[in-house]
Amino acid sequence: MTPEEFRTAGHELIDWIADLRSSIDERPVLAQVQPGEIRSGFPTGPPTELSDLSSLLERLDTKVVPGITQVQHPMHYGWFPSNASLSSVLGDIASSGIGSLGISWESSPALTEVEEVMCDWLRQLVGLSDQWRGSINDTASTACLVAMLVARERASDLAQNTGGLQAVTSPLAVYTSPQAHSSVAKAALLAGFGWDNITMVDVDPVTYAMRADALADAMAADVAAGKTPAAVVAAVGTTGTTAMDPVAAIVEAAAQHNAFVHVDAAMAGSAMLLPEIRHLWDGVEGADSVSWNPHKWMGTILDCSLHYVRDVELLERVMSTNPSYLQSQADEQVTQYRNWGIPLGRRFRALKLWFHLELDGIEAIQERLRRDLANAAWLGEQIEAADDWEVCAPVALQTVCVRHRPDGLSGEALDEHTLGWARSINDSGAAYLTPSMLDGEWMVRISVGVEATERHHVEQLWDLMQRAVG
Amino acid sequence: MTPEEFRTAGHELIDWIADLRSSIDERPVLAQVQPGEIRSGFPTGPPTELSDLSSLLERLDTKVVPGITQVQHPMHYGWFPSNASLSSVLGDIASSGIGSLGISWESSPALTEVEEVMCDWLRQLVGLSDQWRGSINDTASTACLVAMLVARERASDLAQNTGGLQAVTSPLAVYTSPQAHSSVAKAALLAGFGWDNITMVDVDPVTYAMRADALADAMAADVAAGKTPAAVVAAVGTTGTTAMDPVAAIVEAAAQHNAFVHVDAAMAGSAMLLPEIRHLWDGVEGADSVSWNPHKWMGTILDCSLHYVRDVELLERVMSTNPSYLQSQADEQVTQYRNWGIPLGRRFRALKLWFHLELDGIEAIQERLRRDLANAAWLGEQIEAADDWEVCAPVALQTVCVRHRPDGLSGEALDEHTLGWARSINDSGAAYLTPSMLDGEWMVRISVGVEATERHHVEQLWDLMQRAVG
Fold it and tell me: Do B3-68 and B362-468 fold alike per CATH?
């Protein structure tokens, strides 16, 4: 395709996107398709004839879009806000158009250095000190795996350079909360620690935050059993209830054993753009790494997960690779991001952060986050005040966890009721909520924070919920 | 940003991209900037005032583009072709505009099912049997790490469910070629095997391909020493010279020890779109996993790396995570790609493959690959026929490895000469080539295959080379 053909097709595509985004609130939130339905709309083999863009966009409309759950919809309250602000979409488009390759500084100096600048701007915006240096990963799952690998190598004196983890004699142990994201246990397993060496530390029964005293006890017991505490993952904003693990106390407990502390603030990191919220991660300066995702609540389109570390040298010793064909004269003076993570090749992701910050501005983003906090608080109050409804966990940020418990319903009957009313809303396409387990019972998570969600949408949701249980 | 503001800005951006792509051959190939130069063009802190797109595009032109090494330039012969075909760029833009979220089938059924369809189309196009199922990763480095993790767990009876790799008593061993990509050793190290358990198997001195007999010997010696052969990584197209490891013989040797075989065809996989080339990976059906990157020579914009496995159940047992909030009624009937790799969240990458195949067509892609093979062969012939020039390795595909050795120059003097003439071309901005080590001496890799590179560009390169050594 020539640049001129691209120009014509690109204009058509931009109009298609603008039209789609304008019409999102007329669409169902949850895709109304059956398993296999989208797949069966495609031929079983590759095309033998050429298409033009118009015909492709027509098929995109009829064969693909019906299969997309509209997470940009103002009535989407599922999982977490996965905002793709249109300003950041422009940055993503610029990145695609430029078509650069990030495998070394030399392969695209701008890709490397704009990433450094954006990571530093975001560091300042969430109030981290200048002791931290950042990079962009695809997701917080990947950052957590990198943290586990670095922790493993630190605790084993870089065993990868000799016999590897399989030569370690005192088993290395990892600690996290049962409320932490599933990717934490997954990362610890992939790093080779094994289930037997992962402790799910008790949480407080009211706040669902990790108990630092229980962490200290677990580590002491492991040491007595001949194990070596290697890493603790603190969740700043757990997945289920957005509980805030006490970072300062965790850092202190971990320090007794020189264990690595990784702070997983994937969702709640966006909240740290608000100075009045930052007390919730007090102690973060004592951690070893922190990750958070602008691609969630902040709204820089996926994938854009920030990973900050204090000890870059350690990170590079674990993750580096330096074959001759990637060496350059500039090596001593530049950042080689390939030595900071798993993939060698990287996209120019920093552009979407740059466009987002320049075109929307941090003040507007902060205002939106405050709006969402107020909307969640409002919804929590309505639920608390209503008969038979309960808020199951503190509303620390923008997630409201709720059960409707008529006539003291409990056990299986309550679970059936909970899943039933959530499903009736979800299946209608009018809104989307995520059922989740808490204390062995199903509840419903309402994650407020889609860019388009205003107060009247939350009011509309509360109406839907009351009608759904009626 | 509203959809209407996006529409206006989007049109402006499309024109900017079309203009940039039209003017690429007027730009230097290698970015002509010093370390820190791009960074210093940015303010040290985030913006306090709003910009509009025009002002941002002006800064993109003046502050960013000069720092981009133009890998879409017809005179780019460095590293590998990193083609970003404009048809696939359109698919990437559609993906950004749609702004969907891939964390489960339910979060975007179309994202999952179109990925299944595209992986299957590409499977057919490279002639793999229907025993393989694929997914899209960011890079082949990530796929290789996943392969090492799966191999580790297979060889240890899923030790991650108990004491992990650190509880394994017979050390697990990995085998690859010293010519394999640096990401292979990195993946084995990150998986925890340790340097002491990685064998770099001897290669043939002429073809640079792994010697299957040496592999068999190395595995037997390890077994005698109490180790367990766990994995072999065969390079189909090594990084240095595009050497082809003998997959059939490697599979046979590995089978003696039930070792997992991963085929890394990151670069050369695109060549398998040509039926006449497929004999180069004969035996691939006996491997356990294969990865290759449409985002290289085939030209679907980065990131788009395909990863095929035969035993999906094993892959899912190693990589799965299934928390309550991600469970859905459809779980039994659908593919949950989160259980196939490291990240939980994924972009809708399949769209760029779909757009690329529909708008360009496989025939045009095949024709271009054949053009590049012929251009590389032509260049190899010119070099062979010229005084003092030598082709250092067989030209298996589109990579030509070359030295200019006047008056029997050798050792340090030759290295200095080699790096000197390559640098003079690179620094001029007229073309870009990658110096690399082979047999302990520097040589220059010429990787033909940029979408825009026609025969006259290769002729021009050969002129430049002759003048550079003169």
Answer: no
The predicted-structure confidence for A294-321, as pLDDT tens digits, reads as follows 999 999 999 999 999 999 999 999 999 7
Q: What is the mean pLDDT of chain B?
A: 96
Is this complex scored with an ipTM above 0.95?
Answer: yes
Do B403 and B390 touch, CB atoms closer than 8 A? yes
Q: Which has the closest alpha carbon to B50: A366, A85, A361, A118?
A: A361
The full set of domain ranges for chain A reads 3-68, 94-360, 362-468
Model-wide pTM > 0.80: yes
CA angle B65, B69, B71 (to 5 degrees): 115
Residue B3: pLDDT over 90:
yes
What's residue B326's pLDDT?
66
Architecture of domain B362-468: Alpha-Beta Complex (3.90)
Tens digit of each residue's pLDDT (9 = 90 or more) over B28-58: 999 999 999 999 999 999 999 999 999 999 9
3-state secondary structure of B311: coil
Tally Cβ neighbours within 10 Å of residue B49.
Answer: 7
Q: Do A172 and B185 touch (CB under 8 A)?
A: no
CB contact under 8 A, A195 and B161: yes
Nearest CB among B9, B84, B436 relative to A325 is that of: B436
Query: Cβ of B445 and A325 within 8 Å?
Result: yes
Cross-chain CB nearest to A3 (options B18, B84, B172): B18
User: How much is the average pLDDT of A108-121?
Assistant: 98
DSSP letters along A430-470, please? S-B-EEEEETTEEEEEEE---TT--HHHHHHHHHHHHHHT-
Q: How far is B250 from chain A (nearest CA, A)?
A: 25
Phi, psi for residue A88 in degrees, rounded to 5: -75, -30
What is the per-residue pLDDT across A262-285, written as a single tens digit (0 to 9) for each?
A: 999 999 999 999 999 999 999 999
pLDDT for the residue A325: 62
Q: Does B337 touch chain A (CB under 8 A)?
A: no
Q: Residue A152, Cβ neighbours under 10 Å: how many?
A: 29
> Average pLDDT, stretch A31-53?
97
The superfamily CATH assigns to domain A3-68 is: dopa decarboxylase, N-terminal domain (1.20.1340.10)
Give the minimum alpha-carbon distance from B15 to chain A in angstroms, rounded to a whole number.
6
Contact A191 B192 (CB under 8 A): yes
Task: State whether residue A351 is helix, strand or coil.
Answer: helix
Average pLDDT over residues A402-410: 93
- In chain B, positions 25-64, which contact chain A (CB-CB < 8 Å)? 30-31, 33, 35-39, 42, 44-47, 49-53, 56, 60, 64
Domain A94-360 has CATH 3.40.640.10: yes
Q: Tokens 């007390």 correspond to what residue? A: A279
Q: Tell me the H-state helices in A334-431.
A: 350-360, 362-385, 411-428
Distance from CA of B291 to the nearest CA of A (A): 14
